[in-house]
Specification:
Blueprint: H1 9-35, H2 47-50, H3 85-89, H4 111-138, H5 164-171, H6 176-179, H7 185-194, H8 201-212, E1 217-220, H9 227-253, H10 255-261, E2 269-272, H11 276-290, E3 297-300, H12 306-314, E4 319-322, H13 324-332, H14 336-339, E5 346-350, H15 352-355, H16 361-370, H17 378-384, H18 393-398, E6 400-405, H19 414-423, H20 435-443, E7 450-453, E8 464-470, H21 476-487, E9 491-495, H22 499-511, E10 517-519, H23 525-537, E11 542-545, E12 558-563, H24 570-577, E13 587-593, H25 598-607
Parallel strand pairs: 1-6, 1-7, 2-4, 2-5, 3-4, 5-6, 8-13, 9-11, 9-12, 10-11, 12-13
Helix pairs in contact: 8-9, 9-10, 9-11, 13-16
The structure holds adenosine-5'-triphosphate.
Length: 615
């Protein structure tokens, strides 16, 4: 090895001089920046805006080109050893994740140990905070204070992707609420990158129960309140914790333990949504948070080539998000990744109350019957499937079930009924359950379920302003045209109940040279995605849709929802209206009420205990 040549005194002086020079130049540059007037690039810097465009599937929908698997980057990374990032982030003393040898995802009973760890790490964080802030005071370049507005904003360049993010997050008082939730550093890092300064109320309530107490959750909260991450974060948290524990066990016990504890390559979480667009969006949301965690998430939805989706499943993703029809199609064919369910730790029903309605229930029921430990008989299963690998009730006990929607009606004694049932050994049917309760119970909801209902009497999200226009049926088009041309701010979704009405409006509007996108279930999936893309690309876009767009869709900048025809139920009205006023944004929902709608409208008002006496 060559010896390092000694550095002369003059060389040292020279390098010191140039360092001082560089520092001075840096300070001057910073001063220049400081003297610029500050104009936020976002007129309304809501966290909601921040997420847009930061991910591969931009806003959750595929562009037309993306339909083809080879082009839309549904890359499934090959199964690898842990990337090592975790280790780096988990430097000793920063955060300690459990020390037990519990191989299960379940952390029931871990509470106490964890609390201790958290208290310690909190102390350390505080200490670190103090030292750092001291350093900050002494710093010459302090002119550039950490500005929360600029830190995490829609960072196309992903400015916060290095490992310092985690430390910065811990120091950043604005993000402090996340620390309370004891999340894995890689999740915190993603949250920081997304710019979500604090957990939403439903996230605050669900994460401790689901991620740390291992409970099942039935969660209800207003539209746009972040329910996807309320179940998404716990799933990722527990998968990450489990990965680390497994690595430790394998390190300690060698190959023997690998076979026993290593669950890589098996399906770990199955999330079911009622619509294809929503499944793609949820997949995308998961991917945003799972970035850097080496967790694979794949959507399985109808309208796309089943063969291609089978190829995606060959990559053995841990998380699958799908619609009941296509999932059941592949499961009933015995698709190996979807029927080897012995390691399934999470089963999620998003928009659960929609699932109990016609068009979904049958397939969903069949899927549930495939889950290990559900109440259907083995003969029934065998008849349904060619290749199902079942495990007994043990798996059901370990599996967590999450049931979410903005509109779930549970009877007050539902958990008592579940408890009574769990005390009787022979698995009797519980009497007097409503359909969503039956679904939850069949899906394996356990007696200690955390029922978190944050919906208010009005049910509608707080930031949505509701109004209605009374008019004759034949005047609806004129009013709609008026709303679209005068109202004009942001994007608008016009909802119809029938495809005939949708066609009628879109042809009238196109005659009036108003550009619209159209979405309904009879459209080819390719065209559906294209319509969504077009709508998303135009910040004053107009989407005419049936109720296929009513639930879950999270599209930035939707300011107005118009109910051209009233929906058949109060729930659908809530979900439709909830396409606006999401996260911290506001919006308005306008109903066009003709004499034909009055009965329906009156009953809608009664459902929300509203007094709209004009009707
Ligand atoms: N902690 C947070 N802070 C700010 N924004 C958040 C946070 N969590 C999620 N969001 C954003 O809020 C928006 C709505 O979230 P999400 O789609 O999960 O709502 P939802 O409650 O499932 O709505 P819906 O009932 O209509 O399905 C998304 O754009 C999401 O990125």
């Amino acid at each position: 090895m060559a010896a390092a040549s000694p550095v002369s005194v003059s060389q040292l002086k020279r390098s010191k001089k140039s360092a001082v020079k560089k520092k001075r130049a840096d300070v001057e540059l910073l001063e220049q920046f400081d003297s610029l007037p500050w104009n936020s690039s976002l007129s309304n810097p809501e966290a909601f805006n921040i997420t847009a465009g930061t991910n591969e599937l931009d806003g959750g929908f595929l562009t037309l080109e993306e339909i083809d698997e080879s082009e839309y980057n549904f890359e499934i990374p090959s199964i690898q050893e842990d990337s090592g990032v975790t280790e780096e982030l988990l430097k000793p003393n920063k955060r300690k994740i459990g020390n037990g040898v519990d191989s299960e995802t379940s952390v029931e009973g871990e509470g106490k140990g964890k609390d201790e760890v958290v208290t310690n790490s909190k102390k350390k964080i505080k200490k670190k905070k103090k030292t750092k802030s001291k350093e900050k005071k002494n710093s010459e370049t302090d002119g550039m204070e950490k500005n929360p507005e600029i830190l995490p904003v829609a960072n196309e360049k992903d400015d916060h992707s290095n490992e310092d993010d985690y430390e910065t997050l811990l120091e950043d008082a604005e993000y402090y609420a996340w620390n309370e939730l004891r999340l894995h550093p890689l999740i915190l890092k993603s949250i920081y990158r997304l710019g979500f300064k604090e957990p939403t109320p439903i996230q605050k309530a669900c994460i401790p129960a689901a991620a740390h107490q291992g409970k099942d959750v039935i969660g209800a909260a207003e539209t746009g309140s972040g329910k996807t991450l309320a179940f998404g974060i716990p799933i990722l948290q527990r998968l990450l914790e489990e990965k680390e524990k497994t690595t430790k066990i394998v390190d300690l016990n060698g190959d023997e333990a690998t076979n026993k504890f290593d669950r890589r390559g098996f399906l770990r979480a199955l999330i079911i949504t009622p619509t294809r667009e929503l499944a793609l969006q949820v997949t995308d949301h998961f991917k945003q948070v799972a970035k850097d965690t080496n967790t694979r998430v794949v959507p399985i939805v109808g309208g796309m080539s089943a063969e291609k989706q089978e190829r995606l499943l060959k990559g053995r993703p841990e998380i699958v998000v799908g619609t009941p029809g296509r999932l059941w199609e592949l499961m009933s064919r015995g698709e190996p990744h979807l029927v080897e369910l012995h390691s399934l730790s999470f089963f999620v029903l998003d928009e659960a109350d929609r699932m109990v309605q016609a068009g979904h229930f049958h397939e969903l029921q069949s899927i549930i019957e495939m889950l290990p430990g559900t109440s259907s008989s083995k003969d029934e299963l065998a008849a349904n499937t060619q290749n199902c690998i079942t495990v007994g009730n043990v798996q059901q006990k370990k599996r967590q079930t999450f049931v979410f929607s903005a509109t779930i009606a549970l009877s007050p004694d539902f958990s008592q009924k579940l408890k009574r049932k769990s005390n009787i050994s022979k698995n009797p049917k519980i009497e007097g359950l409503n359909s969503i309760e039956v679904l939850s119970e069949r899906a394996g909801i356990r007696a200690n379920v955390a029922i978190i209902d944050l919906t208010k009497a009005s049910i509608l999200a707080e930031k949505i302003e509701e109004s209605f226009i009374e008019c004759r049926e034949e005047d609806k088009d004129a009013y709609l045209y008026y709303i679209l041309s005068v109202h004009g701010q942001g994007r608008t979704i016009v909802f119809c109940t029938s495809i005939a009405a949708l066609r009628h409006i879109s042809s009238i509007l196109s005659m009036m040279k108003v550009k619209v996108s159209v979405l309904h279930a009879q459209k080819q999936q390719r065209a559906r995605l294209k319509a969504m893309d077009r709508f998303r690309e135009d910040d004053r876009g107009i989407l005419i849709a049936t109720d296929v767009a009513a639930r879950g869709l999270d599209i930035k900048g939707v300011r107005t929802v118009v109910h051209y025809q009233l929906p058949h139920s109060a729930e659908v009205y809530v979900h439709r209206s909830g396409r606006t006023g999401r996260a911290s944004a506001d919006g308005c929902s306008i109903a066009l009420i003709s004499p034909l709608d009055k009965m329906k409208f009156a009953s809608l008002c009664r459902s929300f205990s509203k007094v709209w006496s004009q009707v």
